[in-house]
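Marked as duplicate of an earlier ticket. Keeping the data here for the record.
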Amino acid sequence: MNLYDVSVPVFVKALENLKNVLKKGAAYAGEKGVDPNQFLEAKLAPDMYNLVKQVQIASDSAKGISARLAGMEPPKMEDIEKTFAELFSRIDKTVDFLKTLKPEQFEGADERKIPFPYVEGKYLVGSDSLFESSLPNFFFHVVTAYGILRAQGVPLGKNDYIGPLPLKDL
């Protein structure tokens, strides 16, 4: 199995779904006359990051592990987003980067040493880094962003989070 197949397309779909969830949040704020900053600064709990930071971390997680599995350094993005439009742009830039990656770049990635940024001098092999750390971290921040908007009253459902399925006829 090529790690590309279980990473890049998964990240792209989830980020596109996240963008749609954010669009619904922005539209709902407009419909209800709510200051968008109320949503952008909202948290699920006082010791958690706000909506903006959840999106930034999801973006960083997706591009970070994908680039490292491809044997390259991830593109840098400054965490300067303050509006829904800027979050949409960040997601677009992340997806655009992910779409430049090719499966061939991921050959041998399952055993590639991926530095673990939170413990100096330690690494995980590519498959462990993806499955044990990066995918769970990515989805934690995506679902937390969804949860923040849902807690603010935005009418979202599971289908908004999961997105369209590639259903086939029997």
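See parent ticket for discussion. The radius of gyration is 17 Å.
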